[in-house]
Design goal:
By secondary structure, the protein is of the alpha/beta class. Helix content is 37%, strand content 16%. Helix 2 runs antiparallel to helix 10 and helix 12 packs across helix 14. Its cofactor is pyridoxal 5'-phosphate.
């Protein structure tokens, strides 16, 4: 087996608000990019992890080790380099399986990311199982990647999309969701933790209700897998997708979890090398999952890097990360909500434990355009995002073209949130004036 650079070995399950170093203070040094100034005299404060996370040194070293020591194709050679790369690639699959508690390693399919994973299901399972008159149920908070593929499928197959709406506090209206399910429902596709509202949806209850009417359920876990313990067997889902770059891993890699009996029933959606069993001039037979869905040379380095990211997060412990993320969620909300400015905060307020939302907050200010605010906040060294966060339909339903979003991860601290609030206050004071909340065209801010 390939020896990968070691994840942190010190005890990272540390005190936070109750005393001692916080988790963020302890692990911050593991992320080289954070040790810099955004501008002269302005230390970088990175609060855009919902878009992509930063990478620990152990992941970077793993990528370097692959390219310098055993770069080779996988599953295709008997020489030592190919054997080493194949072992590391397949070891990454085992790590992901354990990380989300899948029953079988064959249930983990590597993809370019969550977007490709959702499209894989839409084309392979969807085209074979969705027919005219069938219904697909989504929520209004879905990311474009979990909406557009189903729009395309519905158009191809003559199906209908239905959308579960929000409660007044912008959490999911479960009563409305349940009312949408019926004998025509064939699929539910929902986000686990919203990238715009921050709320964490009751996926197990949603899955049970979907299965009760004979429907399948796919879950977008891009924001939950990095920040909380995700157990696919406890959730009871049929498919679950996530992207590596949001969980301390490289870009260009993600995974699809699927129940093995479902994956075996699904036809390939791309043809090429490795996904075949035998090829004849007039037909081909296909490999078992997951190889059936991994045509061509895969993203080898990225998959191995994802395995290193899983090692890193596992060494810290997802329970410790989740507890710290909830603490940051409460602190971020409370600090912004306490400002005297006229702000519109999106998503439900955190409960006492903070376990009903992720540590991100999208909002608008009456006194300034979100894009302008983001620009001036950046001048203070604080990186946040402005735009619709790939949730145009959601923002439109909320009466906003976009919003500004601050999102924390395990390497952030309360001091980072404080720096953001100071920068926000200064930017609001500088910009002043009146403006519609989130007004303007955010089309260039994708």
């Amino acid at each position: 087996m390939v020896a990968s650079p070691s994840p942190p070995t010190s005890d990272l399950k540390l005190e936070n608000s109750s005393g001692g170093l916080s988790l963020g203070e302890k692990v911050r040094g593991d992320f080289p990019i954070l040790n810099q100034e955004a501008y002269p005299g302005k230390p970088l404060v990175y609060l855009d992890s919902a878009a992509t996370s930063q990478k620990p040194a152990s992941v970077i070293a793993t990528l370097d080790q692959y390219y310098t020591e055993y770069n080779s194709n996988v599953h295709r050679g008997a020489h030592s380099l190919s054997i080493r790369s194949t072992e590391a690639y397949e070891a990454a699959r085992d790590k992901v399986r354990t990380f989300i508690n899948a029953e079988d390693r064959k249930e983990i399919v590597f993809t370019r990311g969550a977007t490709e994973a959702i499209n894989l299901v839409a084309y392979s399972w969807g085209d074979a199982n969705i027919n005219a008159g069938d219904e697909i149920v989504l929520t209004v908070m879905e990311h474009h990647s979990n909406m557009v593929p189903w729009q395309l499928l519905a158009a191809r197959r003559g199906a209908t999309l239905k959308f579960a709406r929000l409660n007044a506090d912008m959490s999911l209206d479960m009563d409305h969701y349940l009312s949408l399910l019926g004998p025509r429902t064939k699929l539910v596709a929902c986000v686990h933790a919203s990238n715009a509202l921050g709320c964490i949806n009751p996926v197990r209850a949603m899955a049970d209700a979907a299965h009760a009417v004979g429907a399948r359920i796919l879950v977008d876990a891009c924001q939950s897998v990095p920040t909380m313990r995700v157990d696919v067997q406890q959730l009871g889902v049929d498919w679950l997708v996530a992207s590596g770059h949001k969980m301390c891993g490289p870009t260009g890699i993600g995974f699809l979890y699927g129940r093995l009996e479902l994956l075996r029933s699904m036809a390939p959606w791309q043809g090429g090398g490795e996904m075949i069993d035998e090829v004849f001039f007039d037909h081909s037979t296909f490999a078992e999952p997951p190889s059936r869905f991994e045509a061509g040379t895969p993203a080898i380095a990225q998959a191995i890097g994802l395995g290193a990211a899983v090692d890193y997060l596992s060494a810290i412990g997802m329970d410790a990360i989740e507890a710290y993320e909830h603490e940051l969620a409460v602190y971020l909300w409370d600090r912004v909500a306490a400002l005297p400015a006229e702000l519109t905060l999106y998503g439900p307020p955190p409960n006492a434990a903070g376990d009903n939302r992720n540590p991100l907050l999208a909002f608008n200010a009456r006194a300034a355009h979100a894009h302008d605010l983001s620009f001036f906040i950046d001048q203070e060294g604080v990186a946040v995002r402005a735009g619709h966060h790939c949730t145009q339909a959601l923002h439109r339903s909320l009466g906003a073209a976009g919003s500004i979003r601050a999102s924390c991860y395990l390497y952030n601290t309360r001091a980072d949130v404080d720096a953001f609030v100071v920068a926000l206050e200064a930017s609001l004071a500088f910009l002043g004036g009146e403006g519609g909340a989130g007004g303007g065209d955010f089309g260039l801010l994708l």
